[in-house]
Amino acid sequence: MNPAVRIQLEDFSMDEEVSAIKTSSMRMGGIATFLGCARDFSEGREVSEISFEAYGSMALSELIRLRSDAIEKFGLLDARIVHRIGTVKGGDNIVLIVAGAEHRAPALEACRWMIDELKQRVPIWKKEITPQGESWVTSHP
Amino acid sequence: MIKVLFFGPVASRTGIHQATVAFRSGIRLQDVRDELAAQYPRAFEIVCFAAANGEHVRDMLLPLADNSEVAFMAKFSGG
C-alpha cells in the first residue's frame, strides 16, 4: 500500500485512496474527501496549465505533521493526503484529502480543517500559465 | 557555510534557487536575511516565511549552526 502522505508528480486514484483508508479500521463509519482540481479559468483569465513547486522535504514533513495533528484534534481513525507537483492542466487532480472517523461530523470537519491548514503551512507554490504569460499565485481563497 | 534555498515566486525574483552565506560564530537567521535582502531586494519584498533545517521559524534571532539550511519563502499557494 502507498504511504498515507505523499507528494508526487503522477496522478492519483481517489478510489484507491478511499479503499486504502477503509482497510485501516472496521470501526470507520464516515469517510470524507476533498479533491482539489485545476481550473482552466482564474481571475478573469484563461489558464492553460498550472505548475507546482514545493520545498519537497519540508512540505512532506509538514503534511505528515498535519495528518497527525488532524488525527489527534478530531479523533480520526485514519487520514490520507496526496498532493501533486509538476504541471497539470484544467480538470486534472491536484490534491486529495481523505479523513476517516467513527462518525461523519469529525470526518467532514477534519477534511475542511486539513485543506485550510495545508494552504497556510505547507511550502508549495502554484504558477498559472496563461496565453498572456505566467504568474505565481500568492492568494489562497 | 549556510545554505539558503529559494522557491517559486521568490526564486523567480532572485534568478537562483540556492545561495550560500559564510558561517561565522553567532550568526543569526536575521543576519542571513539582511545579507541576502541587500542582494535581492525585489525578492525579499514578497518573503513572508522563513525556515531553518526544514522547520518554520518565527524568531528571526534564531542562532544558526554551521551547515544549516535556511529558506526564505513567499506566501504558500498549494492545494
Q: Could you explain how this protein is built, in words?
A:
The complex is a heterodimer of chains A (141) and B (79). Chain A contains three helices and ten strands, in the order βαββββαβββαββ. In chain A, 34% of the residues are buried. The mean pLDDT of chain A is 96. Helices cover 33% and strands 38% of the residues of chain A. Chain A is elongated. Chain A has 141 residues and is an alpha+beta fold. With 79 residues, chain B is α+β, with helices and mostly antiparallel strands. In chain B, a hairpin with a 2-residue loop joins strand 3 and strand 4. The N and C termini of chain B lie far apart (34 Å). Chain B is globular, with a radius of gyration of 12 Å. Chain B is built from three helices and five strands. Chain B has one domain: Roll (Ubiquitin-like (UB roll)). Classes of the chains: A alpha+beta (141), B alpha+beta (79). Chains A and B meet through strand 5, helix 2, helix 3 and strand 9 of A and helix 1 and strand 5 of B.
